[in-house]
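Possible regression after last week's pipeline update?

I re-ran a chain I had predicted before the update to compare outputs. Posting the input and the new output here so someone can diff against the archived version. Not blocking, just want to make sure nothing changed silently.
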Amino acid sequence: MKYIVVILDGAADRPLVDTETPYDGQTILEAAAIPVLDLMARQGRVGLARTVPEGCEPSSAAACTSILGYDPARYGVGRGAIEAAGMGIELADDEVALRVNTLIIEDGLMSSYACDHIETASSRALVSELAAELNDDTFTLHPGLAYRHLLVVKGHRELLDLQFTPPHDITGQPIDGHLPRGGAGADLLLNLMERAHKLLPTLPANLDRIAHGLRAATDLWPFWPGVAPKDLVSFTERFGKTAALSSGVDLLGGLAVLFGLDRLDIAGVTDGLDNDFAAQASGSLDALADHDLVVIHIEAPDEEGHAGNIFGKIAALEKIDSQVMTRILTYAKQHAGEGVRVLALPDHPTPIELLTHTGDPVPWLLWGTGIEPGLAPVEAYNEFTAADTGVMIDPGAGLMELLLAGGDGGGELA
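New output (post-update):
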């Protein structure tokens, strides 16, 4: 048996209201043309899952940990440490890793948490120039992908006790009250942020952006601290299956490293609508030649949700359906004798109206060999048809067992 997990990052939503589009009253999943996902929903099982346990931040760190079959409350790792693993950075026991964004603050407002979705080459150059000025025995900046970077702080574990606000949670809002706060370590980070703010207007990479008619990065914003994890159990040890993972973001790459999944390097895989969806699907399916299970994580719906782009989020889902799910359907037909099961779901909602994540349960579908339609069959795949089945997997970490057991176990069915 081969197993395929498709994570439609942030795809779940709320009904659109007063958008001046034809889609008012519908969620993005309802509005998008996704015939393959709808077909799988009709032929398989559908329900809701709580991938973000009560008390956990509604981020992909917790939600994707759940989807991989691990309870975040037990196996959760601070996001900074996950991203460090994804970047190949080994943390010492006295080091704290924080995610840090290059972004734009104007008139005290969070203008762009992603520095207008800065390209990786430009952002790497910018952060490398900052690192040359700021790195010392305490701070080390590591350039990452697009606007996402890493700050490693040595000798200050008190940073774990601070309060942080992810910048995508306050798009268009004042930053007052949202800077690092709540302890002595806050001043350490605030001082670094102020030094970066003063340096950024002078850096060649920023001046080059201005010369090309682009907005300059104004600030660094650290958040999501974490330390090196201990005593994690590998996916193969936990489930007895070999697995690989494809993603365009370091977070998922870090989870792959920490839980022992092979990280696939597929050309053209990105975090946005420019992702080569077809190449990601084909490369991931090729990995099933020597793995039992593959995870295909697609970031684009989440990015469009943060941007409040209705049409972009619809386009992302339609590309997933037409270029990823169609290839999975073809693969399943070609390998019917061996057996193929598919689990597809968002990790968390990223509602257009909120521009950020929520911890609401997400719709999942389970399709393939040995999977029969549930007692409440559905006609389409979306939040409401999933809720109407009355099936809830809580905790969401039970989804992996449900996939591997063929719909007979994992989680609580209510």
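Follow-up from reviewer: compared with the archived run. The longest strand covers residues 95-106. Marking as no regression found.
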